[in-house]
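#structure-requests
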Amino acid sequence: MKRVILLLLVAASGAWAEMPDMAPLLGEDWYGVYFNGQKAGYAREAFEKRSDGQYNVEQDAHFQMSMAGVRQDMHINTRRLYDAEGKLASVESVIETPSEKSRFVGVVEGDIMKFSRFLGGEESVSELPRPAETLEDSVKHALWVLKSPVVGDGMNFSLFEPMYSKEVTGVSFVQAIEERILNGVPTPVYKIQSNIDVMGLSTVTYVTARGVVLEDHIADNMVLRLEPAEVAKQVDYSNDVIVSNAAILDAPLQDPRGRDSLSLKITAPLGEDHLFNDNRQNFSPAEGFFNFTSKRIDLKGFTAATLPVTDPAYAQWVEASAYVQSDNDAVKAKAAEIIDGETNAVKAAEKLCSWVYTNMKSTFSARLTNTLEVLNHLEGDCTEHSVLFVGLARAAGIPAQTVAGLIYVEASQPGFYFHQWSRVWVGEWIEVDPTFNQVGVDVTHIKLSEGDLLEQTKLLPLIGQIKVEVNGTE
């Protein structure tokens, strides 16, 4: 889940026929970063024209927060270079935590982008189509208001996102033009809404008529607010992103791991992308909330698939990906060692799950998770447990993917906390939670997302927005 929070600082974009005047927008601004009303960090945004006529756009964000009382620091720096005509020339994004540094670099050469990814101590290189992104895309809102749009006007945008290694697109439109008193002077302020459909992400940006971005509201739970530099950098680690975003119950849930069924009332802004109904769980809409039921799945008598699974219908979930390096020699060797020749897919999944549970040191972490890095360090929270298990499963020939949602935790404040686990195809899809050593997860798991990192971003609007009640029949 924490990997998804990294993506909240996504910007967006368009293209032009001739280079507009960028001079009014040059300089830097500082922003306080607030997550569900609590300060979690700060960001600096800078726009510079170089002596060679090229433009630099930089976003430098620092997060200082807690995860269940453990202090976490994260630094995300992204730099974009555009040529004198406003075309994207290069992009570099670096994500640093005290224990890890990840780097993504894209350089445009003709009609392609040479893209390098540094994760888990290894570099991978690929060639991608040249992104359509332009300089106007990076400063789209500030530049747009200088052209005096009216309510209802819209624009398309495009942005290459290094963490995805792909370009995302969307649309912005002027929702309203308000008047605010700034420094004692009535000032027109544009309210602009942007939507990135593939991410299920919506933002609202407030921009003055002179192109100054006052606030960015992202997914209804993160706000970037313009502040003096010394004010923006005042952060005290008071925001605990684990506890503050949980759905706390009034009383503990009885026998959470051993029970056969569960019935809940869930109040949340759930959309079609979040409502997973299968043989284990079911959502049914009611007036203003959702009824959720789940049951324990019995694997006894189940006919397991034989490894490796070669059915092309599941090929996508056996292949390696950017964050699941299942084709790495060390990952393949460890998977082979753990399953020790086992060809029964269920038994092999049980061995892998047990090994991850037994060998991982559980600790909260803000790192950008990937299979190889976790295998090298063998520590982390549910995100690390899940991505290591998925990588080992794929290396063993078992189709596997990550799952995210909520799970009941018997903490000092008992309730449903955001969590990540896995699912594997072993003749049919079953869910596996290596954090709790469960092959066939308990009924308190509420699945809200399944698939890769892009799918998990659709959970962003839910963070801190979910309430859960145990139905009276329980």
